[in-house]
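Technical note accompanying the year-one report. For the benefit of new consortium partners, we illustrate the data format agreed upon in the data management plan: each record pairs a sequence with a structure-token string. No post-processing was applied to the example shown here.
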Amino acid sequence: MAMNGAQALFKALTDAGLNTCFANPGTSEMQLVYEMGRTGYVRPVLCLQENTVTGAADGYARMAGKPAFTLLHVGSGFANGLANLHNAGRANTTMVNIVGANATYHQPNFAEHEFINGNIVDLARVVSHWAHQAKNASDLAVLGAEAARYSRLGAGKICTVVAPTNCSWDPAVAPPMPCAPIETPKVSPQCIQDVVALLTNGKKTGILLGSHTLYGEGLELAGRIAAATGATLFAETFAPRFARGEGRVAVDLLGYLPEQSVPQLQSYAQLILVGALFPVTTFAYKGKSVFKVPESCAVTTLATVDHDLLAALGELAKAVGTPSRPVARRVRSEAAPPTGVLSAKTIAQTLTALMPKDAILVDEGATNGGPICDQTEGARAHDLLIATNGGAIGNGLPLALGASVACPDRKTVVMQGDGCGMYTEQALWSMAREKADVTVVMLKNDDYAILEIELARVREGDANAKMEALMHLDDPTLNWVKIAEGHGVTATQATTAEEFHRQFEVAMQTKGPHLIEAQIVENLKPMIDAVHKARVP
């Protein structure tokens, strides 16, 4: 049967198992939209802003274990999705982007959508492991097949295909036959033996886990290795997906701020990295070390995200032998419903008590997210997704949307800071349209609170009104109940621990999207004062 380029592209993608498309299309994507509508193999999910598109595709892939594909409108639309593509890339998420473009013969005419100093592929390469523009209609399907295949290499890759309009409507040959996956490189036997020697030398050892080692088979293997050797397991600060809670292997999340993370590793003589990078601070601070690891601690890499992580852990587990003691696992925390002031602590108590088994917990709670994560380790078994893997805020709501689309039978809860929630509040509309089973806990402190801590590192005296004006969100205050309702999402407001507990309990018992505006009380003054006191003039 004769095909055009768009039909051949979709056949290549669906043959490779990609059947979910998060989209914000425009004029140059109409042939693609038309052909997508004619196929029964693709589920389209409309998002009202491109950073929601890319963030949702990220959340979907983390939970589905396979890529979604995005549909974005020309270079400017792709640029709008750049921040969460960056987060996805740093999370080693598998993803395929399809970006429309002017016809190949029209691009030299410098129509309005053309960039003033470059092209879409130039921009795409900044946040993609692989990026190409189709030369003709038949090439479009070949690139789609290559992107789908390459995106699954290692822990995951971001692949971007630029699709000029004439490549979508022109006649094309049938797409290539599906290919076997590209084999991911395995670590060498010598590397395994070197790490065994470290684990058996009697020194205090930590193992820092990242990527696919933090859930499923990877986490179980790491637990066995720790039990056999006495090593302590840590999770990288921005863990893409972290299985925790009751019955799960015990792993400590490495803190974000150096004031948190440095003491965690201070007593360790050795640190072994498995799918994680060398721990450094997100930002440099005047006169301070950028390393979270003490100088006395030797750091060794067993495997990177470009290696077969599960195979590496499997070989290491065989080499260290059967553990002589049980694997350390989290136990269930039992507590009475909280009362009084609504704070990170009381919210964590409610989440621990009421989140159902196999819930998905998304963290973009900023200054409140860390304390809530720390205090929900004893909840029922759940997956934790950290949203800001690339440091770009605005991924919490989109990530939760994508995770819910991937796992519609699991309850998704997102801890969302109010300031970063405004970056992608359009995701609420898509949650309503898709009837996504997401409960948004909007942590409303009317502040970019993390910036008050960071300002304390550089200011000499007290912050003045102009400084505070760039951090405070209370003039005017945001009304998240109205924002949510305007997007079709049921919303309530809680100002006490009791109110929040009751509202969260209702949300857990009801299908569909809910938002709870949690007006929390947060006291950061001790942290701010300590940081200011320790600053280097």
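Partners are asked to follow this layout when depositing records. The first strand starts at residue 3 and ends at 4.
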